[in-house]
Write a structure and sequence with these properties.
- With 180 residues, the chain is an all-alpha fold.
- The protein has nine helices and no strands.
- The longest helix is centred in the last third of the chain and has 31 residues.
- It is globular and about 55 Å long.
């Protein structure tokens, strides 16, 4: 346990991504309030979030499945701003036209689902820090992100020959964004 913390801290900043991810997940189990985990590990976990667009059925059915997502949910409040930047802002369809495609939509959908889970945790546990962190993004989710997803969903409805799972992702994203 605690004897492993210094070695894990060094490994979290390791350049080998898979080793850094494994160390970050392990640290999340041993010491979820560790400074290195919160400062460097969050970025490692976010970079590991890469929704499998070849298996949208699983993403839609179990969006919170995965060790990196589970660790993000354990760390809590310090992950919210980086999560919004990494999965939403970076994948904004308004800024970059390619972000209207399925990869960026899947990343945004995952962000909404994680934010919804955080909101549920905040409510269930009356976690003030988590509530404050989520409130910072409430207006942008409602005023910017939900309408963006609705617009993309409407465009997807008109697209001819869209695979079923892809159409389901575009339909699920606005619902998820409005609930986040």
């Amino acid at each position: 346990g605690e004897k492993a913390v210094p070695a894990l801290e060094k490994t979290i900043v390791n350049t080998n991504k898979s080793v850094a991810v494994a160390a970050t997940i392990a640290m999340g189990k041993i010491d979820p309030v560790n400074a290195t985990l919160r400062n460097k590990g969050v970025d490692v976990l976010l970079e590991d979030l890469d929704p499998d667009v070849k298996d949208l059925k699983t993403l839609l059915a179990q969006p919170l499945n995965g060790k990196s997502v589970a660790t993000i949910l354990v760390i809590g409040e310090p992950t919210i701003d980086p999560l919004v930047k990494y999965l939403l802002t970076r994948n904004s369809p308004k800024m970059v036209p390619q972000n209207k495609q399925v990869e960026a939509s899947a990343a945004r959908y995952l962000a909404y689902e994680i934010l919804k889970e955080f909101a549920k945790q905040a409510k269930d546990n009356q976690n003030k820090k988590l509530i404050v962190a989520l409130k910072k993004h409430e207006v942008s989710l409602r005023v910017f992100w939900a309408p963006q997803e609705t617009s993309l969903a409407n465009q997807a409805k008109k697209a001819f020959g869209l695979p079923t799972e892809t159409a389901q992702l575009y339909a699920a994203a606005p619902r998820s964004a409005s609930q986040a």
